[in-house]
Design a protein that fits this description.
The protein is α/β, with parallel strands linked by helices. It has twelve helices and eleven strands. Strands 3, 4, 5, 6, 9, 10 and 11 form a seven-stranded mixed β-sheet that branches. A two-stranded antiparallel ribbon has the order 1-2. Strands 7-8 form a two-stranded parallel ribbon. Strand 3, helix 5 and strand 4 form a beta-alpha-beta unit. It is elongated and about 80 Å long.
Length: about 300
């Protein structure tokens, strides 16, 4: 195991500013991210490097020794960084964005080649995205869930409606009759006997939809677990079976007749979608461009 250069940069910032919060502001990362770097460095060295007080981080003797060791090498690295930054005409910022696979595929994928900066897309669960945004691993996330991290800010920009769909060859006559009569319990019982598609990541859609519209947790397992919602739509296209998905992901397939919209619920279930960013970032222009692009793309699929 080797120590990480970012741990040393963070250590130097804490030493020189005297507080975790001031170091976080200087480095444009979250305070929890600064704490994580310091804890990792202390675990690696095996020494306590600061005495923590309410107002100031006071370096220990080992901490002072470490600072003296790293000061000149880090200054040389920073000087080299400035030199090559000034003389590199091809330098591009690198932005890391967290979103679900389908959101990327339907809204951003076709625009990547025209972006004037590097882009790293990460897929995953929303709580992990929020954690990575707070710790500085991501610069922007698209999420239907707001976290409680003080360093993050969320801006609503669109909505998604969670709907029940079926393959175009699925006989939905009996189900639609029950729904029209508002015989919800009978409709739920009938649906439980059908073929179901889902993904490991979107089981929350199924659970939340079932609880809201049928008043109970689904007590059945989907027949087919596939990699993503796009796979569900392809599997259902001109076939048989049911699934519960966000509406913007299936509009084209519904319009072309490959699948059909069965039910939105008596009171449709909608999620607000948010852009999540850190309150302070050095990539304001790049993030603004991405947000503007995504908002315009969302207007088209709306």
């Amino acid at each position: 195991m080797k120590w990480n250069l970012e741990w040393l940069r963070t250590y130097k910032a804490i030493y020189e500013t005297g507080t975790l919060s001031a170091a976080a502001q200087q480095l444009f990362i979250s305070q929890p991210g600064v704490s994580l770097h310091l804890n990792s460095l202390e675990a690696f060295t095996g020494y306590k490097l600061f005495d923590r007080s309410a107002r100031k981080m006071v370096p220990t003797e080992k901490g002072k020794i470490l600072y003296n060791y790293i000061l000149d090498p880090l200054k040389k690295l920073e000087t080299g960084e400035e030199h090559f930054h000034k003389h590199s005409q091809d330098e591009r910022a690198t932005i890391s964005v967290g979103m679900c696979f389908e959101t990327f595929q339907y809204t951003l994928e076709e625009h990547i080649s025209g972006l004037p900066f590097n882009l790293i897309i990460k897929f995953g669960e929303y709580p992990q995205m929020q954690h990575d945004l707070d710790s500085g691993l991501l610069d922007l996330i698209i999420t239907p869930q707001k976290g409680d991290q003080q360093n993050l800010v969320y801006r609503p920009f669109s909505k998604e409606r969670i709907v029940l769909i079926a393959g175009s060859e699925t006989d939905t006559t009996a189900l639609e009759r029950l729904l029209q009569k508002n015989e919800i319990k009978a409709a739920a019982d009938l649906l439980k006997k059908q073929l179901w598609y889902s993904t490991a990541a979107d089981m929350e859609h199924l659970k939340n939809f079932w609880l809201k519209h049928f008043g109970e947790h689904p007590d059945f397992s989907p027949n087919y677990i596939v990699p993503n919602i796009s796979s569900i739509i392809r599997c259902l296209s001109e076939g048989k079976g049911f699934s519960i998905v966000p509406d913007f992901l299936c509009r084209e397939a519904i319009a072309s007749g490959k699948i059909k919209l069965v039910w939105e619920g008596n009171h449709p279930m909608e999620n607000i979608l948010y852009f999540g960013t850190r309150k302070k970032t050095m990539y304001c222009d790049e993030i603004d461009r991405l947000e503007h692009l995504l908002e315009k793309r969302w207007e088209l699929v709306d």
